[in-house]
Amino acid sequence: MKNLSILKKPSELWKIILINIIFLFVFLELGSLGWYFFKNKQFFYTREKVTENNQGEELENQEENENINANVNKNAMGINLAGIRLEDSVIERLHPYFGYVQKPGPDFREGFKYNGAGFISPYDYPYQKQNNNQYIIGVFGGSVASNYSIYEIQNQILEKKLKQLPEFKDKEFIILSFATGGYKQPQQLILLNYFLSIGQQFDMIINIDGFNEVTLAQANNENAVDIMMPSTNHVVPLTNIANNSLSTKSIQAMLKINDSKNKLKDALETLDKCQVAYCYALTSIYVQNLATTYRKNVKIFDKERKKAAQEAAGETEASIVYFYAQNPELEESELYQTMAGHWQKASIMMKQIAANNNILYFHVLQPNQYYPTNRVYSETEQKIAFDSDSPFRKATELGYPVLLSKIDNLKQNGVNFFNGVKILDDAKEIVYIDSCCHYAEVGENILSEFVANSIFTTLTVEVRE
Predict the structure, then answer these.
(1) Residue 102 region, left (φ>0) first, then alpha (ψ -120 to 50), else beta?
(2) Which has the closest alpha carbon to 158: 182, 175, 140?
(3) Which domain holds residue 228?
């Protein structure tokens, strides 16, 4: 009877419903606040805003180790979407000289774009000096080098350091990136020659590499493609499209990848607009599910791509794109020695070309988690930075020591070489954002400081001498 009397009073019923809704919201919000704090070790309402950040190519590249193009990183709420460039499914284009470049178009970072030459920069290439006071620095390498150039433009770490020297005090620094995810020697060497030939001016060149050389040489070798050819991880999918040789499974996976990207774009926009914790938590779970679907289809696409590459090995005459074959497959000892020898020669040639054009040349070996140093990783970072199934682990462990064995010879040939493999050792924070090679902001800052201090010290010593 009591319940019947309540039902006879609509106002009382609505009050009960409203109270239950309020309690539901409070419980959802409290639970979401606890979840957010557990995941991020900070309170939702006083959190630092998480910004989208290019961590490359690559996957500049979903993650570069999954071999699909990417350019957006969203690291909020433990979401790692390293690199999904959401506006396009295939963002790379075959290039007759460089292997491949990025498709020209907009970028999410203010002031940046993918220019007509296919590189991310505020400028079109070749960039001509607007006055004699401008000082042009070209950055070459893969996705780590590309991210370095972006971070340097945004934070001017090298510029501030060099301006301590009298000759740079009043200079206007222009940073130009010629780096793209997956590039490896001799692509840097070819790029330098090409852009010099069409009138690009440089005062300084910074080449940051090493990781792609060892890991992608291994990938090429496994796919029976000459190790000095552009990365098969990047070029073969484009070649298969050009040859119209994608399998049905590949095409289906690409369509699903595109669908996931469109949904992710909308979900990430919603995520940024969430003002309460439960909205953020629920949207984050949705985004994570989309990311899982995305990665699943990336792996399917990559598996089909590898199968097509293996089937195409030795059949280059049937393709409209020609690759030099690696036949037979090199043994590990020969593979890394051959790769390192070519890497060394290419760097020495870049130095010689730079010297002939009155350009300073600096070469940096990038740090990577798979090359063991004294760094101690937290349990959280280990889950982010390491993958037991990573195709990069073995190549880095075996290849980096061979690269390091070439340092003395590089220096004897006049190369200003900076070994950066241990620069992250003292960092207490999480410095890696994926299981490939890319750094969080703290890692980007450490790399930029290392490059700036190394160049500053070198130039200071030269002045004294």
Answers:
(1) beta
(2) 175
(3) 136-464
Q: The tokens of 40 are what?
A: 């991020």
Cα–Cα distances in angstroms (integers) from residue 78 to residues 60, 161, 275, 277, 394, in the given order: 20, 34, 18, 14, 27
Find how far residue 57's CA is from the centre of its chain: 4
Residue 357 lies in a domain: yes
Alpha carbon 270 to chain centroid, angstroms: 25
Contact 441, 424 (CB under 8 A): no
| CB-based contact 137:176 (threshold 8 Å) | yes
The pLDDT of residue 60: 37
Q: For 346-378, how does the pLDDT look when each residue is reduced to its tens digit (9 = 90+)?
A: 999 999 999 999 999 999 999 999 999 999 999
Half-sphere exposure of 423 (CA within 13 A, CB side): 24
Query: Can you tell me the distance from the alpha carbon of 460 to that of 465, in angstroms, rounded to the nearest whole number?
Result: 9
Any bridge partners for residue 99, and if so which?
Answer: 95
Residue 453 lies in a domain: yes
Of 124, 60, 125, the residue nearest 91 (C-alpha): 60
Q: What is the pLDDT of residues 161-175, one digit of tens each?
A: 999 999 999 999 999
Amino acid identity for residue 403 in this structure:
L
Residue 390 has pLDDT above 60, yes or no: yes
The answer to whether residue 109 sits within a structural domain is no
* Residue 462, pLDDT score: 64
Q: What does each C-alpha distance from 71 to 60, 97, 104, 220 come to in angstroms? A: 5, 23, 13, 23
What is residue 93's three-state secondary structure? Answer: strand
| C-beta separation of 63 from 73 below 8 A | no
d(CA 32, CA 269): 19
Residues in the chain: 465
Phi/psi for 353 (5° steps) reads: -65, -40
Listed as own residue / partner, the contacts of 115-119 with beta carbons closer than 8 Å and 24 or more positions apart are 118/93, 118/180, 119/146, 119/176, 119/177, 119/178, 119/179, 119/180
DSSP string of 321-374, one letter each residue: S---B--SPPPHHHHHHHHHHHHHHHHHHHHHHHHHTT-EEEEEEPP-TTS--S
In the chain, the number of structural domains is 1
